[in-house]
Amino acid sequence: MKKKKIFGTKQIVMAALLAALGGAVWLNMQYSTAAGGFVTGTSSNKNLGDTKYVATVSQDTATPTAASTDYFKTAAAERKSAREEALALLEDTLKSADSNSEAKADATEKMALIAERMEKEASIETLIKAKGFEKAIVIIGDDNVTAIVSAEELLPSQILQIQDAVTSQTEISLENIKIVNKK
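Above: the chain sequence. Below: its structure as tokens.
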């Protein structure tokens, strides 16, 4: 009698993809505003967690930069970790003797898509940095792109530069490009 697996390779791959989607939704919720746009730093709205110095002069200017750098390093590490997990699951599918040719072809296609997105994200990040932004991280989804840049606030000309960098490397339309500034 053959033992049945509780979780097959397809279920594990789907769980990993669902976790990645959940992460993308969480990021979207973190940076979106109630009006449907994204926080750009030009709004006079107060955000929970914003600090305000009263009657003091801060001489420690390295702290915001360090926090911003930590955010970008952490986000890049989390993105890399999630991709490595997804690729490992797909590689397991390819190596599994139980996988049929259709599952292996699907895994190969998904691995190629991940590799293509990684290459495009790196290219867009390089272009954004070349346009004067110190730090940038780009996340490409199925039909959208989110670009997070290190800036106090974004001018319309800077937004256009970022959109240009994204559209030059992808076929994503402007309305599906989300730009977030991280102080």
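The helical segments are 9-31, 62-95, 101-130, 156-169.
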